[in-house]
Amino acid sequence: MPTFVVKSRNWEGKVVTNELEGESKDVVIAKLREKGFFVTAISEKRGGKGLPFLGGGRVSSKEVAIFAQMFSVMIGSGVPLVRCLSILQVQLENPAFAKVVGQIRTSVEEGSTFSAALGKHPRVFDNLFVNLVKAGEAGGILDKILQRLAGYLEKSEELKGKVKGALTYPVVVLAIAAMVVLALVMFVLPQFKSIFNSMNVELPAVTKALLAFSDIMQEWWWIIIPCLFLIPVSITQFFRSPQGQRVFDSNILRIPVLGLMMRKVAVARFTRTLGTMIASGVPILQALEVTASTAGNVIIKEAVDKTRISIREGESIAEPLKQSGVFPPMVVQMISVGEETGELDKMLMKIAEFYDTEVDAAVKGLTSVIEPIVIVFMGLVIGGIVLAVFMPMLKLINNVS
After folding, report:
1. Predicted local confidence at residue 114, as pLDDT
2. d(CA 367, CA 166)
3. pTM of model > 0.70
4. N or C: which end of the chain has fewer CB within 10 A?
5. What residue ranges define each of the domains in the chain, with the CATH number in brackets?
6. Cα 120 to Cα 126: distance, rounded to the nearest angstrom
7. By three-state DSSP, how is residue 110 classified?
């Protein structure tokens, strides 16, 4: 179905630009007239959806959090649902997000519930968002649910940013080091080759190996350099497959420093998600199902799934979590206390806040460990190349003296 870019005036006289799908221009114009809009210009949109890595067609978690925050304020102020969606569609700066909101508004106007309309766009609104909105609709507390969702998304985005920040530094430094080494090997070493040949001195093994590597790079650079980019892409694609994801998730938790941080991140995400859903009135089994799907780690997901099965058979939450061996004893004990006191949601949120602080400390610890390791590694590599270049010259000077 084609998409049309439509400029129209609403009942307030304000010019609104929308992207709407329809069988033809006449159908789109007729729909807008029924809603009280006067169309001033309409044209069919050409071109693709845009490239994800250039930002086309993507909606970030931060944008969804802002959407939930604004929606909560308007719903709490008594603004009708459809009117809220119309206002937000005009105000959103991301065209892709505005288009999604427009489609949601159309679905609601056609009789769909808000949660069902959100569920048609899983790439923007995940199972957690949809299920919480459904609980808010059933309990008549949609504004409070959206407020809670906005807080949850902001905290999750902050947690994700901390982890990315800790891992970005070593990746960037290693990438720069690799480019420096390639430049030395391909452009600097060949200048010394003729000098070494005229010295009539037996070259050290390190220098010979480095010159051989330089010759290979100069002859086969058109194969080697693309492979240097294709190998990380291939590894990433493998880890995105079910089998690769299991290998990655099971091994990353065992790495001494990084694994401890990732375990704390997983616990914080699990407790915050489950606590948010229980506090919003979602049944425990449904909450665990959604929590498992948003765990972000296959091992954690399997532990939560086993917990859900055990609860269905009449057991408590704490016991199967303890048997899984994934969650720390303190977390299991606090969840057990929360069950006994009837304040599981509050206890889960306290655990999440505690582990947010722990993740902060873990990120600082990881950064303090990685920085000297990366610096020493770069020093050894570049220093080794420089030493391999100057060793023949030093040997010649010793022979002459």
Report:
1. 92
2. 6
3. no
4. C
5. 3-45+57-152 (1.20.81.30), 154-401 (1.20.81.30)
6. 10
7. coil
